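Figure 2 data, in text form.
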Amino acid sequence: MDLKIGHIEIFVKDPNVSKSFYIDILGFELIEIQSDVYIWLRSQDITILLRPGNPTGMAVNYQSAEKG
């Protein structure tokens, strides 16, 4: 059985600002900007999703990590 990671979600304060770092510095390719908020990027076999997140520290669970 081959296991494969679908994507990695990274919570950031502002996905549109963070997008430049991932594209210009790390060399990721822009796949899609979803709803003007969610940034999908790819580098080789790695797909990441930059999404708004709670910048105040560790989240207790996935739902509390989302920016409200």
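Caption note: Residues 15 and 29 are 14 Å apart (CA to CA).
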